Amino acid sequence: QVQLVESGGGLVQPGGSLRLSCAASGMIFELYDMGWYCETPGKQRELVARFTGSGSTKYADFVKGRFTISRDNAKNTVSLQMNSLKVEDTAVYYCNAVNMYNGREYWGKGTLVTVSS
Question: Could you give the count of Cα atoms lying within 13 Å of 51 in the half-sphere of its Cβ?
C-alpha cells in the first residue's frame, strides 16, 4: 500500500533552516502530485507548497521566498527546504500525495518543526 514517511523535523532557532523529506513507497511516484501541508493546534491543516498537475509549483503566501519544494522521481522523494524560519512556522508538517488520475489522496504521519529561541 501507499506509504509516505516524513523526516527532518526538529528544533531550530528563528532565522535558521531545515530540510524536510518525504519518502514514498507502494506507488508509481510520477503519477502523483506531491505536496506539503502544516497544522497547528486549533487551526485547519493548510497548504504549504505543492506540485500541480502541470508540473508547476504552488506556495502559500506565508512561505513564498523562504521555502522551496522539490522532488526526485528517481528516489521517490519530495523535499521542502525551509529557510528564514519564523516562530510562526512551528507546526506539524505533513507530506501529501494525490493520484493525478483517480484523485485518491494519501497522507504521511507528519513531522514536528519547532522554531524557538
Answer: 24
